[in-house]
Amino acid sequence: MLIDKVYSAVSQLANKDQVSGNLTPVEFNRYIELAQRDYIEENYNPKNKLGYESDFKNTDDLSDLKTPTSLTVLSGRATVPTDYLHFSSAYGTYVFGNRGRVTPIELVREGEWAERLASEVNAPSSTFPIMKSMGSYFEVYPQGTPNINLTYLKMPLQPWWNYTLSGSTPVFSSAAGTVTNPNSGVASGASTDITLGESAYNSLVQKILKYIGIEIREQDLYAMAQQEQND
């Protein structure tokens, strides 16, 4: 599991640091949740106009969060999924004559919504439908818009490093840990892995170390990972 790899690296480096000392599982679980959230937010909205799919690394790292679903539209509104975090794409199948055509639905900001409705040049239509986020629902225009086929980034489960004790030393356990996993629907003694690609490893380790006041270079992390593979 990626979470155990991150825990091992952080623990090893924290234990070597005379100021930080030992990192407890309670502290690590708190920090890894923060690190995962920070990583997602940083990579979801880079300056590139293509968003989180601006390069293949970002696409791969966040791919486990991508979730497709179909939303029913009633009176121009569709309920937002309970685990919704960020928008990825949306489309509807519109009927023109006797043929259906897949049409992208553009997500617009609140300030753009009124401008588009009032526009004589770029007004929304069944050819160019729009939607906006209203918290618990999406508002869609035109109101005859069919069901929305939505792909979004879901809220990940809380990463959880579970363990048993060997004497007083915590030892990783993937399924039979002694601490109750806080995620709904997950077995009590289970660990919950990080919902990111393996290439996020270095960044997550660096983030946690920074939270506890340790700075480490990318090259040092790489060298440590290579050493572990050779041992």
Record the SSE blueprint.
Layout (H helix, E strand, L loop, with lengths): L1 H15 L8 H20 L11 H6 L4 E6 L5 E3 L4 E13 L2 E6 L1 E2 L2 H9 L11 E4 L3 E5 L6 E7 L8 E4 L2 E4 L28 H11 L6 H13 L1
Parallel strand pairs: 5-6
Antiparallel strand pairs: 1-8, 2-7, 3-4, 3-8, 6-7, 9-10
Helix pairs in contact: 1-5, 2-5
Report the strand count. 10
Order of helices and strands: HHHEEEEEHEEEEEHH
Name the beta content range. Answer: 15-25%
Amount of helix? 25-40%
State the helix count.
6
- Order of adjacent strands in the largest pleated sheet: 1-8-3-4
Shape: elongated
Segments where pLDDT lies below 50 for 5+ residues?
A: none
Assembly of the depicted chains: single chain
Euclidean distance between termini CA atoms: 19 Å
The gyration radius over C-alpha positions equals 23 Å
Structural class: alpha+beta
Mean pLDDT: 86
Taking the sheet with the most strands, its summary is: 4 strands, antiparallel
Please provide a written account of the structure.
The protein is of the alpha+beta class. The protein has six helices and ten strands, in the order αααβββββαβββββαα. A hairpin with a 2-residue loop joins β9 and β10. The longest helix is centred in the first third of the chain and has 20 residues. 25% of the residues are buried. The model has no long low-confidence stretch (mean pLDDT 86).
Output the keywords.
elongated, 231 residues, alpha+beta, four-stranded antiparallel beta sheet, 10 strands
